[in-house]
């Protein structure tokens, strides 16, 4: 969903989507570039 939203909003060239585990730390090469992190929780 996030990828299609980025395409629809013409943001694909400005953002990088990453998928990972919330409880694991970011790789050190990404920590300096993390301006905004969002979580999409699924509620069932």
From TrEMBL:
Q: What is this protein called?
A: Uncharacterized protein
User: What is the species listed in this Swiss-Prot or TrEMBL entry?
Assistant: marine sediment metagenome
């Amino acid at each position: 969903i996030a990828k299609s939203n980025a395409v629809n909003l013409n943001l694909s060239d400005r953002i990088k989507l990453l998928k990972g585990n919330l409880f694991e730390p970011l790789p050190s090469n990404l920590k300096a570039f993390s301006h905004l992190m969002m979580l999409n929780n699924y509620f069932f």
